[in-house]
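FORM 12-B: Structure-to-Sequence Request
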């Protein structure tokens, strides 16, 4: 009986210690030593070439920070990786230009990015003819 209660007490101590350690990690993550709230962030600058891992610099009054960031290597859009848009479906193929287009409306601007409210993108029409079903 005493062994059981000793094991139970030990288990409760371990659970309490684990909960306290988790709380300390969260507090450290939130508290970075800065009291400034009006941070201005620059664009993500890749370490090499035009995509991949990089950093973003931020300033607030006389403080500055660098955050890690990533630009996907398939991201070649002129409106930047910090501007997120909701796009409609692709339109039909234009016989005159050989391209199809669609419009995107700004959904979110990350890190105070300067984004256009509406963007228009085009791409070449596919030369392949898609069949509706192969079973027929």
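FORM 12-B RESPONSE
SEQUENCE OUT:
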């Amino acid at each position: 009986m005493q062994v059981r209660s000793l094991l139970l007490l030990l288990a409760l101590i371990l659970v309490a210690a684990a909960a306290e350690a988790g709380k300390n990690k969260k507090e450290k993550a939130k508290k970075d030593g800065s009291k400034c709230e009006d941070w201005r962030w620059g664009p993500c600058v890749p370490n090499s070439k035009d995509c991949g891992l990089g950093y973003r610099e931020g300033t607030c009054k006389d403080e500055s920070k660098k955050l890690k960031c990533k630009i996907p290597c398939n991201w070649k859009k002129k409106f930047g990786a910090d501007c997120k848009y909701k796009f409609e479906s692709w339109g039909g193929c234009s016989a005159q230009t050989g391209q199809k287009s669609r419009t995107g409306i700004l959904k979110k601007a990350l890190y105070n990015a300067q984004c256009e409210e509406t963007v228009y993108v085009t791409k070449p029409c596919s030369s392949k003819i898609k069949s509706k079903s192969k079973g027929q």
